[in-house]
Design a protein that fits this description.
heterodimer, A: mainly alpha, 7 helices, globular, B: alpha+beta, six-stranded antiparallel beta sheet, three-stranded antiparallel beta sheet, elongated
Amino acid sequence: MTIDGAPLHGSFAELYEELRRLAHAQLRRGGSRPTLSTTAVVHEAYVKLAGAGPRWDGDEHFLSLAARVMRQVVVDYARTQGREKRGGDLHRVDLSDDSGAGEVPVEELLAIDRGLERLGREDARLEQIVMMRFFAGLTNGEIASALGLSERSIERDWRKARVFLLATLGGKGS
Amino acid sequence: MTAQPAWSQLSRLFDEVIALAPPDRERRLAQLRLDDADLAAQLEGLLALDAAPGGLLDRGLEGLGGAASAGPAAPEEDLSGQPVGPYRLTRRIGRGGMGTVYAAEREDGRFQQRVAVKVLASGGSPELLRRFDRERSILATLEHAHIARLLDAGSLGERPCLVMELVEGVDIVTHCDERRAGLRERLRLFGEVCAAVAFAHQHLIVHRDLKPSNVLVSGEHGVKLLDFGVAGLFDPESPAAAATTVARRAFTPAYAAPEQLLGQRVTTATDVYALGALLHELLVGVPPAPRLASGDDGRSPLAAALAAVPAPALEATAAARGLSARQLAHALRGDLAAIVAVALRPQPERRYRSVQELADDVGRHLAAKPVAARGDDRAYRLRSFARRHRAALAASALAVAALVAGMLLALTQAREARSEALRARALRRFLTNELKREVVDGSLEAGGPRLGAIFARGLPNVDEDFAGEPEVAAEIWSIAGETFRMMLDEPRAIAAFRGALERRRALYGDGDARVALASGDLATALIQHGDLAEAQPMLEAISRPGVLPGEQRRDMLLMLSRVHVLRSNLGAAERARREALALTLALPGRRPEERGEGLDRLASVLYLQGRMRASERTLGEALPLLRVEPHRLAVVWLRRAYALHHVGDLAAAAEAYAAARRIDGARANWVGARIDCGVGVLLAERGDAGAARDALAEAGALEVSDQQGSLEYREAGLPCAAVAAWLAGDLDGFRAGLAGSGKEPAPRSPQDTSLREMFVAELLLAKDQPAAALPLCQAVMRARDASPELLPWRRAEPRLLRAVALRRLGREAEAGAAIGRAAPVVAAAVPGHRFLRLAGAG
């Protein structure tokens, strides 16, 4: 992953490492059937680094970064899974720990990631909102207060980003 | 279809079209099909996708799991056919956090019995073993009609197993949806769930992982709760034990209470939250958005969920409940929204104190009795405040919903913030943002009056609605004032701010900072309305030392200085601005640009006082500090150029004009016009009329192209049209040009005034009216003599013009002497000055 030219100095790098570490720790913690809750990772990291309950207000920096790191972690993870299962020519991988929750289609996840790259070239803000909502599992409210926008406009943007991505998915992505 | 071509255009159209009601949308699309069929087709494709299910995108990644990144998962071994004690596993039926569940049959010939056997996953960690063991001991103590019973325990090789009642059913949400169960049926089933959980709580057992897949419904037995697998024994009598009862990460995030997400203590309130989440899903079809301890926005989670569901999905959800979307939204608006909101409060201590209380409230709702959730619930009363004005609400649903939601958000945050200042800031920030956006969108005109109507009608009831909470009532009066003020309805703003001030005064007493801030709000509205005389003493009182902290006191001083400027008390204005600047400098952690902004304001008042040199120097000091957009920076350079121009330092003025001109984007609007205009006057003064006209021709074009400029003339000298008329010798045109600048700008420096008068005198002379020009020249002389900073030629200028008038009047002796004194002074500084030609001395 690239860091979009943002400066990789002290606190930034620290934050980045911490998020990655937490995400992988969570995956390990689950033993043979781990669950990754991206929301929990982001919240946990925040609590650790800020020493307080999450209060996203004005934390655009933290949350954008968290969202990007979660995207990377999730996508890397899905790629690994995809490779391992590809031997049996399986395109869907059971990533679930719960009989009720179904499976996470790796191909779909990777296609979303590719679509998101294209979206980012058209509209960086929509890309950011998708990363925050989809990959970091943040609510519209949290995103809104981080970006200093209204929830209404976040929801509008999400809808738009969603159709863009669905359009690229339907067109078999890039 | 592909979204690649012209995304920005599609994106704009999409925004536009989704905001339209279906008939309008259809009309718009029809029109678009005619205009650009390709684009229309693409847009329709997007709209179809908007209504279509989004798969993984909609489901999200929560709970994404699988083999650890360390290695692939061991393939699950199918144990069907294996014996566990007297049971034989027949088929795998599911997998939970604890292990794999099989259906099994008792096969020892004594009696036929079908059971469920949970087999611990192979390779289980010691932690899993401990949990498994705990589940066994816990479940053994629980016997309840709605809880799946533990029948036995056994083992399969090394693996411990639990033998449980087999429940042939489907999860409660699917069950309800398949049967298109109405809301009452859903609530009834939910009541059974509550009864089971309440029973477990009486046995000191917390479930910790309540979710639809753990709540099955079977035909014969009704509700059955599965999997007290993550439950921990807890003992309220033993705080030491309780302290160690920390949530492990064996929960499902969508149903997990904030304390679970944050790894804090789990109590019965955790189950209350999960039940709230279950009720939420039963009612609106989706679990609630995660709620964090500090992220309680006080708004009803149900309402938020309804708002978030796209219309087609909402129709489907409603249909599964035998309702229309409208009916569903209506049914979920009152008691049920309140019940879910209380159950889902982020802070455990603010939820229902027990599952029984939650169940009781659901029961009361079914019996159409008042529910407890709506009792002491500030958010509820705020909603009811809004509901009382439902007609207006419906009219501007989005704007008002945002407003009310914002109020709730702010009030809830305020509860935690404790400080009045924070609370006020939160409210203000919300409102300011929201209204600014309306102004920017251009939707204020449509939404504004309705917003205003809500407050206008609702305000008289506020004291009653918030009888026990006068602070909140006062706050709402203040918000109303702010709303009216931003809508430019000053009389109402003043009335509302007076209301807020009275209430705060009664609450906190005179001398309290909150009372002072309320005075400040009132004074701001009064100024906006033009009631300067009343605003001034209020601002004087609250800007005295010791009333408000430094930053707020500074803001009040600046407001006061505005009153002084508007009332032409320039000395007092200057003192206030200097004091404000001193306060700024003393602020801890101030930004360098704040000093620049303070100097900039001081320079304005110096300019108005006619202290051009001081103003120009102050601007020179401010310029390197300012961090403003290029357009604002160009204005500051322009003002510096004006000051130098008036003083008579034409070389320095020309440089300053050039500096303003060099700023990127400065020439794009009225600032560019003002710059060109100043340069035009300067060139004309130097006697280069041709170049001056060229400069003005450009300026005129710019000016017409930007109406906004007219508001800014008060800071920026003469309108270009007037200057151009002056150059053309057109007195009527000059006067019309001045009038065309809109409202007569209030404050004006002696220099601006003298410039106008001198231009008029010059034009009168051109029209051969020397008698009329004479008194004007004398007025200009007096004004300029009073300004010691002017260079000598600026004072000689009106004298030279007066001499020309005298000569035209035939008073040759006086004229000759005056020309003899003034002409050399002017000629030395501005050799080509036009007056020299008029006087025959050029």
